[in-house]
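Reviewer comment 2.1 asked that we show a complete input and output for one of the modelled complexes. We chose the magnesium ion case, as it is the one discussed in the main text.
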Amino acid sequence: MVEYADVVVDLAYGDSGKGKVTHQLCRKERYTHVIRYNGGNNAGHTIYHEGKKFITHSIPSGVFHGIRSIIGPGCVLNVDHFFEEMKELENGGIRCQGLVFIARNAHIITDEHIMEDRQDNTIGTTKRGVGQAYRDKHWRKGLRAEQVDSLKPYLIDMYEELHASDKNCRILFEGAQGFGLDIDWGDYPYVTSSGCTVAAAIGNGVPPQKIRNIWGVAKAYETYVGLKKFEPDEDIFKEIREKGMEYGATTGRPRQCNWLNINGLLKAIKINGVNKVIFNKTDILRDVGVWKAYDEKDFQVEFSDEEDMKGWVESKIPYDVKVIWSDSPERI
Ligand code: IMP
Ligand code: MG
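Response of the prediction step:
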């Protein structure tokens, strides 16, 4: 049975540092399961573990802590990449065998999906075939993990795993992408093809009453990867990109940078029901020495210093939401 579930959601366009937050939560809390609830290997989670840098794409980060790690039914999976990723982790000293599982009803990304995605240049996808796999899933023509022979040893049934046994399950849901890329709430069509909110997490088999903490992850500024114009023509954003190492963990593409947008942030907090917010990479703004954000009317506000900006942002966030400011993961 499910005792509780915590959720990590990204409040922006992905790349806010969910990997770091899940990693720290796994250290602190006594989770029995880490579940990836959406997306596929379009995601790239950077994790610093015992002095080594790892980038995971599909495998939940519970494996770094010996916790059962499930690729949930809300995900799409590239089978070859899955085996490669597992091999890379095992080579890096991270045990996956016996810890990594795939929901039998998760969907498969096929070679045809990838070929089709590679030829499409409309919104600037990661070209991993993710949109095509979700299209076929919803079109009822998809292939499920349970139909793939090589995945048999990894398959589980979410109901059996979480509800049919009398073991207490304490779950961490690890989201991919972010609110600004959500299929419903993002800037359509510049979005990914899955749900990136808490709603998508509970769709993986956990009742809503069991949700405990909802951790919203953002950065002190914003980044976006894709074809729409996001970055204003100002040199400061190039500086932020360099100092913040804002290049895609999956595709290596430069991320477009911009100031924090308070409207988008508040919307993401409210729609997800976030009760704790973490702002990562505050150190990057400290390095460039400029503190700015967009206010409710989309005007740039400049702050006199770090405390000024933090106070302003916190004054906008509902009082019962805990706010934590943090630095780049490699500096912690
Ligand atoms: P897709 O998910 O590959 O179809 O790409 C759709 C949009 O989401 C593109 O703008 C991608 O750059 C973006 N995207 C997808 N996954 C991620 C991610 O993990 N981080 C940041 N952007 C992403
Ligand atoms: Mg990422």
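The two ends are 35 Å apart (CA to CA). We note this here for comparison with the apo prediction described in Section 3.2.
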